[in-house]
Amino acid sequence: MICGLRATHRLKTESNHCVVVWQLYYCTSQITFVAAQLSYYRTFATVGIRFLPSQNCPIAQEARPIIVKLTWKVFERPNFGRCFGGYRDGVKLLFRLSVSPERLVIVNDSIIYPLYEKDKTLETLENLECDISGIMMRKRGQTENLESYFLSISKNAFNHKGFKKFWDNYRPTSDKQKTIKRGERGFSIAMSQCGLSIKSLYKRETFETCLKQLTDAELFQTIKYQAVLYPNIARQGQHLLLSHNIA
Question: Is the pLDDT assigned to residue 103 strictly greater than 90?
């Protein structure tokens, strides 16, 4: 039994090809919760993917009828453990239900998908010919790990005893740095040590190579429209643009 979970729906379907566990946090009692997520639900429902939202707060009563129609299952859980806590509960729910998908996709709510009409990220990750794939590989010293906001996991990896052992032993925490260490980095390290292959769509080196190939005009456009987390980097970019009379 997974403590603290409350399943709200079960859709009868025979397809186990792909299950998407989507970790969400939306604290609202308004129908806007559903409106914000309809693109996800409809995308997966129309192609027969089993969509399993992991919700970190109660789902509004007025939202439930719509969600029930478009999801395979949805469950509520306490707001504890950040995204990896929700990932763990979603994966362990699949274990408990004896569901073994051909492809498991784990995503958190920092991702907008599909980003555009013919977004093929799911298919591209599946076609990387490895056990576990992700968008970006991060390097820390001599160790590499997949960034964990969008992971694609093969049936071979899902059924591997090392995969089950990782989630059975994972201890959720709401401390961000501990979650990164135990979860994001710990997952890639544990899977690699099990002999499972890991690949990413992009690496930092690829990004740097692409930047070096840009013309000055293209580089200025990139700086102009970049989204950055740190104010000092934003100021540096603005200063560079102003110094070249680019508004």
Answer: yes
**Cβ neighbours of 90 (radius 10 Å):** 25
**Closest by CA position to 74, among listed 82, 62, 64:** 64
* 194: exposed, middle or buried (Cβ count in 10 Å: 0-12, 13-18, 19+): middle
| Residue 238, φ and ψ in degrees, nearest 5 | -65, -40
Residue 153 DSSP label: E
Would you call the peptide bond into 114 cis, given omega within 30 degrees of 0 as the criterion?
A: yes
* Predicted confidence (pLDDT) at residue 35 exceeds the cutoff of 70: no
Contact 50, 18 (CB under 8 A): yes
Task: Answer yes or no: are the C-beta atoms of 7 and 73 closer than 8 Å.
Answer: yes
Taking the complete model, does pTM exceed 0.85, yes or no? no
Q: What is the largest CA-CA distance in the chain?
A: 62
User: pLDDT-derived band of residue 39, with 50, 70 and 90 as boundaries?
Assistant: low
